[in-house]
Each structure stands twice: as C-alpha cells, then as structure tokens.
Amino acid sequence: MVLKLYSFERSTCGQRVPFEFVSIDAMKGEHKAPEFLKHQPFGQVPYIDDDGFILYESRAITRYICDKYPNQGNNLIPTELKAKALFEQAASNESFNFDPFCSAAVFEMVFKPALGLVPDKAVADGFATKLDAKLDVYDKILSTQKYLGGDEVTLADLSHLPYGTLFGVAGYDLLTSGKKPNVTRWWKDLQSRPSWQAVAGGIKSTA
Asked: What is the pTM of this model?
C-alpha cells in the first residue's frame, strides 16, 4: 500500500513529506473535523497513513521515511556516531534557532493576509531581527563546512526550506541578499535541489 500524506497543498510542514497526497481543505476546516482528529488530535497538518500506521508531526514523519527507505536517494540521516550527533545538533538549530523566528514572521506577513487578518509588520520585523542574529552564527558555521551538519546535506538542512522560502515571500532577503555569503551559498544550493523544486509550487502526489 502506498504511503498517504494528509495535508493541504501550501502547507509548509507538508512540503517536507513525499508520497501520495490527500488534499485537506483547511479553509473549510477539514483539519478540525472529527474524522481528521482521530488521526491528528491537534487538528494540524500533515499526518501520514502508511498501510494503517498513523504518524503526525512533519519532522517525525520525515525521519520515519528516511529510516524506512535508507537506500533510496541520499542518506539524509547519518548513522556513524559522531556524524549522527552533528546531524542532531544541526536539527536542533533548525528547530530552536531558525523556525520560531522565521515562522512567526511568515505568519504575520503571509498567513494573516491569506486569512483575511491584518498583519503587524512591526511584530514581523522584530522576529526578522532576531533571526538575523541567528543567521550570523549560521554564516560562521557555514564558513568552514558546506552544510550545517558537515560537508554532506542532511534532513536538518532541508527542513529549513518550507518556511525559509516563505520568508522571502514575506519581504525579507536575509537568506538571499549575499550579506551573509555563506548562508546565501547554502540557501541557493538547497533551493536548487530537484526534490525541493518538485514541491515548491505546492504539494502533489509523488507515488
């Protein structure tokens, strides 16, 4: 049975996950429907159904897929002890030093208008300023290695793509301006990957 992804097309978290796509209409509140809540009790997207195995939270899903299909494509989660530790360090950086600030700015400037709400640019700018300081550290890390966990791309790098891309849509060029040259080099590398290009315009079934 093909793994099924339940999400909506523009979901930033859903963009982290491949395979057969089952569209959920968030504007109609389908993610809050009782049937959906049986599988995702928080009423958020995405979740997967892998032949009856239900799993939600995009980072957990992507790790599961990497572990289930270790010989398909790049090995995005290292297995050697020290390399795995550096991957976990990089993944924590994405979760705690990038996503909270980037996603908050995107919510203000992209999601609020889409929902008919009034964005607060001052609030978004405040989050962007905090992210700017974090990216200074990223630039130092990336001055000595190609990716955040070393010289091989990992899931930790790719997890930046959904919200990082919308950060540009929100009107911020911290990732692309070249003022942090190592960050810009890294970012262009990630965005040029065929796997990202396949979902950047919206999620479609890949099965």
From this structure: 0.89
